[in-house]
Fold:
Amino acid sequence: MLNSLIFDADGVLMDSMPCHADAWVHTFSEVGIDIFRQDIYDIEGSNHAGVIKLIFKKAGREPDPEIIEKLRVRKRELFLKKKNIAPFDGMYDLLKKLKTDFHLAVVSGSDRPIVDSMINEFYPDIFEVTISGADVTNGKPDPEPYLKAMEILKVEKENCLVIENAPLGIDSAKNAGIYCVAVPTYVDAEKLKRADRIIQDHKQLIEFLSDIESPR
Structure:
């Protein structure tokens, strides 16, 4: 019986990825690597260290631990200055209702201060568990983030549903053995085909979640 819903944050709960991407573009430009927003959208879901390693690899470079930490801090600093972030319409009211019947969790690749700032502002008192990119050794697409959420919730994979919007996030959920629904917020639906179900947009996502049978 389904009793737990686990959400990615950026692109599922909040329309925030353009701000993440712009912060990364600026950060990488400071070390001589030029990228575009789409470069970040395509690897969305990875934690900060993962993003840095992937972008450096694409540029034919390898970051040492010192530069990874420097860029992680710089990107976080730039992102937290952003003011044009908002929750997707209808999601808060929906989750407030679902909270009475389901365990709700967030699994994000972003750093803890970023995740907490958005959740506290837009979804206060909604989620039982929040996993940030800094809470795991191996970020998405590794299954560790979703396995950790299940462990803390004390639920089994058969009782969970993941809502994602990024290829690496879907890989993480499926590698953990969890049913995954995807919404193509920033990438083409074709890139989300490993999901068990692809939903067209947030309006349809809200309709889908509203129709889920209560376990209680």
User: Anything to note?
Assistant: The CA atoms of residues 116 and 130 lie 8 Å apart. The mean pLDDT is 94. Residues 65-79 form the longest helix (15 residues). The first strand starts at residue 4 and ends at 7.
